[in-house]
């Protein structure tokens, strides 16, 4: 029964999409239900599709750039959703958030200098630090009673001992699903100000919070925080536009902005692609209602998983997410080795999840599960999981 536009099955197979069409390339058997890479199995808002169709029909794809309306639409979105007053001049466009993280690392540190992250965290954080020959410093998040928290003492100790230059904050946090509170952000922010550490806040998941949680833009905490920050945003997660490669990097401090722009200029990159730019503007202009409906649907998906695990698989523990459509799930009570667990998930459950250890060693025994798919897909996946775990008896 179709209750929501998001229940409609979209066949993504054969579109060269990473999630469904690259099993062999990733060394996986065919036919797994893919709940891994962070994109959604949903069509974009109708207005975005129409905008892209108009673009395609025009048939000319020359160079473009953003007009004032682009920045107005962006500014309105962040004001309406997060109470954050911005200025168009703060925006630096980037093909991706990870591209921007890498540029920030190069712009604000030298080879061999330290960059701090909070694992378990989105794995490209560590990858870009290492690829740019910086030193990876980890301030591990601590899980207390099923809630991940920051260890401030260790955070400051590592910053001082390792002379950290840049802190990559993940807010909301992928994969543990935390929506950081004002107090938490201010505490780490104050430590960074004290020791002159630049805060690069990856807020790509900012639009996904569950009822009762409100995302806070790091730079909206106050002038001193804004002046020491780079805030990375994109319509890519929110509206399922990742393949169009458009993101907006906000840098209120003109000195930091200029240094960042110089680094981007060094790469030779100049502007967003025509379709990405148009889709981004249309999504922020017209996608509000669609997003509200989507969030309701995802809340339903989360409720399904929560209830299913409680009723059928009590030995598997969901880390209750406050935001993002990625679930962080603890399989350690099964008592399996990493290899045994992955074998069970692939060969018996026929699922393609993200192994927790890719987000840092502390993620071992966990799996990340993407629930941005039709409920029917999710039901099938969890039924397969329950049958596989049953087979262990
Ligand atoms: C925290 C986080 N940052 C960045 C990205 C990717 O951003 P982009 O595709 O713009 O590089 C993802 C995608 O999953 C993510 O979860």
Automatic annotation (TrEMBL):
Query: Is the keyword Lyase in the record?
Result: yes
Q: Which cofactor does it need?
A: pyridoxal 5'-phosphate
Q: Name one GO molecular function term.
A: cysteine-S-conjugate beta-lyase activity
- Which residues, by range, are in coiled-coil regions? none
Stated EC number for the protein is 4.4.1.13
Residues annotated as domain Aminotransferase class I/classII large? 37-383
Q: Residue span of the signal peptide, if any? A: none
InterPro entries recorded for this chain?
A: Aminotransferase_I/II_large, C-S_lyase_PatB-like, Class-II_PLP-Dep_Aminotrans, PyrdxlP-dep_Trfase, PyrdxlP-dep_Trfase_major, PyrdxlP-dep_Trfase_small
Q: Which UniProt keywords apply?
A: Lyase, Pyridoxal phosphate
Give the family, as the similarity comment puts it. Answer: Belongs to the class-II pyridoxal-phosphate-dependent aminotransferase family. MalY/PatB cystathionine beta-lyase subfamily.
| PANTHER family according to UniProt | PROTEIN MALY
Name of the protein = cysteine-S-conjugate beta-lyase
Q: Which gene encodes it?
A: patB_2
């Amino acid at each position: 029964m179709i209750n929501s536009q998001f229940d409609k099955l979209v066949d993504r197979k054969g579109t060269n999409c990473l999630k469904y069409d690259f099993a062999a390339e990733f060394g996986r058997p065919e036919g797994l239900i893919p709940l891994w890479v962070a994109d959604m199995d949903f069509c974009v808002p109708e207005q975005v599709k129409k905008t892209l169709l108009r673009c395609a029909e025009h048939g000319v794809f020359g160079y473009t750039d953003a007009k004032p309306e682009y920045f107005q639409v962006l500014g309105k979105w962040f004001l309406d959703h997060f109470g954050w007053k911005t200025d168009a001049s703060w925006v630096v466009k980037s093909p991706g958030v990870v591209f921007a993280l890498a540029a920030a690392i190069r712009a604000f540190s030298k080879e061999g200098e330290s960059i701090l992250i909070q694992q378990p965290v989105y794995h490209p954080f560590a990858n870009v630090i290492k690829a740019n020959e910086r030193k990876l410093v980890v301030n591990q998040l601590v899980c207390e009673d099923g809630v991940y928290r920051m260890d401030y003492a260790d955070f400051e100790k590592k910053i001082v001992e390792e002379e950290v230059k840049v802190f990559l904050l993940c807010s909301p946090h992928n994969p543990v699903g935390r929506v950081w509170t004002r107090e938490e952000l201010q505490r780490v922010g104050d430590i960074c100000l004290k020791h002159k550490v630049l805060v690069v806040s990856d807020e790509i998941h900012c639009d996904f919070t569950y009822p009762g949680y409100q995302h806070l833009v790091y730079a909206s905490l106050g002038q001193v925080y804004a002046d020491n920050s780079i805030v990375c945003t994109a319509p890519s997660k929110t509206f399922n536009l990742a393949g169009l490669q458009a993101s907006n990097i906000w840098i209120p401090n003109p000195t930091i902005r200029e240094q960042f722009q110089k680094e981007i200029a060094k790469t030779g990159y100049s502007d967003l692609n025509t379709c990405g730019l148009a889709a981004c503007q249309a999504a922020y202009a017209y996608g509000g209602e669609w997003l509200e409906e989507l969030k309701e649907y995802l809340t339903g998906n989360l409720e399904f998983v929560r209830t299913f695990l409680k009723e059928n698989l009590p030995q598997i523990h969901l880390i209750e997410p406050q935001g993002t459509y990625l679930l962080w799930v603890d399989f350690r009570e099964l008592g399996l080795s990493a290899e045994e667990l992955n074998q069970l998930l692939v060969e018996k459950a026929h699922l393609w999840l993200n192994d927790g250890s890719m987000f840092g060693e502390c993620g071992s025994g966990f799996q990340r599960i993407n629930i941005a798919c039709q409920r029917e897909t999710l039901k099938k996946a969890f039924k397969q999981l329950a049958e596989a775990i049953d087979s262990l008896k």
